[in-house]
Amino acid sequence: MFTLRTVLYCQSSCLRKRGLATAADNFQIPVINFAQFRAAKSDSEKKITAKKIVHAFKESGFIYVESHGIPTETVSKVFKESAAFFKLPVDVKQKLAWEDPRSNRGYVQIGRERVTQATDAAEIASLREKAPDLKETMEIGRDWDSEWKNMWPQESDAPGFKSTMLQFFQTCHDFHVEMMRSIALGLDLQEDFFDKKIDKQCHNLRLLSYPPMKTSLLREDGQARAGAHSDYGTLTLLFQDMVGGLEVQNPHTGNFIPATPIPGTIVINVGDLLARWSNDVLRSTLHRVVAPPVMKISETEAVTPARQSVAFFSNPNFDTEIECLPNCGSPAKYPSVNTEKYIVGRLAATYS
C-alpha cells in the first residue's frame, strides 16, 4: 500500500533522476553532494563543487544539499523537541512571547507574523489583519548575547529543549561557514573571504509548526500558511518534514513550483543581503508555504495535515557593511547597508 510518505519519496526519487526539472522550461533546484567539497584535496578540486553551487544560486537561488554531514539522528531529535514544545499549554508558551525586532527571540503565536515583500507599514498591517500567516514559531539566537537573551521554557516543562537547540544552533553555524567558503571559491574569492564577516553568529534558529487547518480558512483572499517572501540574510538552511508545501517561484516565469521534500537533504536558499553583496549575481528567490494535499472530512470541508520545519537564518555579523563585492559587476545596484539596520527594519515591519 502506498502511503503519503511513500508517494512523496517516489516522486522525489523521480525528480532526482531528472535533475529536478520541475517545468517545461527546465527550472531546476539541483541536488549538490557536499561531501565532494569536503573531500577535495585542493582548491581546484573544491571549485568543482563550488562552481555548481554558485551556478545554481545564480539560476534559481535554491539548492538541495545531500551528504552535508549533519547526522539524521541530530535532525530527528530537533524535530522531536520542537514538536513537544509546540504541544505545551498556550499560557506556558505565551510567557516566552516575542517582544522586540532587535532581539528576534521568543514564541510567536499564530497570526502575529505576516511575511511579505511589501515595505509599507500600513499595507503590511492590513495584510496581517486580513490574511495572517497560519503558523506558530519559536525564535532562538546566540545564547551568549550580552544585550538580548533567549526565551527558554523551564527545564521541567521541556526537558532537554535548551541543550538540544543550542547544540543544533552551533552545528548549523559551522555548516554555514563551510557553505560560505564554497560560495567564496565559486565567486573566485579567497576561500576565507567571508569568515570574519560571519563569525559572531548573529543568526536565527526558527522552529515552525503549521497546525492542521480547515481548507475553508485557506480559501480566504490572500491566505496562505506563509506568504510569498524572500529571506533577509546570507543563506537559509531549511530542514523539512515529508508533508510538503514549500513552493519556490520560477524567477523566469513567475510560476510557483513545489520544492518536493527529499529525505536527508537540506534546502538552502540565498537571502537578500547575500544577493546585495553579490550585486544580484546570486539570486534571492521568492518562496511560500501553501497547503499540501488535504484529507476530506465532509462533503464540503477538508483538513490539511500538520507540518513541521526548522529554518536556520544565517546572517552576516550585525556590524558588517554590505556593499558590492569587487568582482560582481559594476556599477553597484545597491548602496552600502548595515546588516543590523537592514534585518531589524525588515523584522519590525513583519510583526504586529
UniProtKB/TrEMBL annotation:
One function term, GO molecular function aspect: metal ion binding
Mitochondrion as UniProt keyword: no
Keyword Repressor: no
InterPro entries the UniProt entry points to: DIOX_N, IPNS-like_FE2OG_OXY, IPNS-like_sf, Iron_ascorbate_oxido_reductase, Oxoglu/Fe-dep_dioxygenase_dom
Gene3D superfamilies: B-lactam Antibiotic, Isopenicillin N Synthase, Chain
Keywords recorded for this protein, A-Z: Iron, Metal-binding, Oxidoreductase
Source organism: Dendrothele bispora (strain CBS 962.96)
SUPFAM superfamilies documented for this protein: Clavaminate synthase-like
Positions of the Fe2OG dioxygenase domain: 201-316
Protein family per UniProt: Belongs to the iron/ascorbate-dependent oxidoreductase family.
One Pfam family in the UniProt entry: DIOX_N
PANTHER family (UniProt xref): 2-OXOGLUTARATE (2OG) AND FE(II)-DEPENDENT OXYGENASE SUPERFAMILY PROTEIN-RELATED (PTHR47990)
Protein name: Clavaminate synthase-like protein
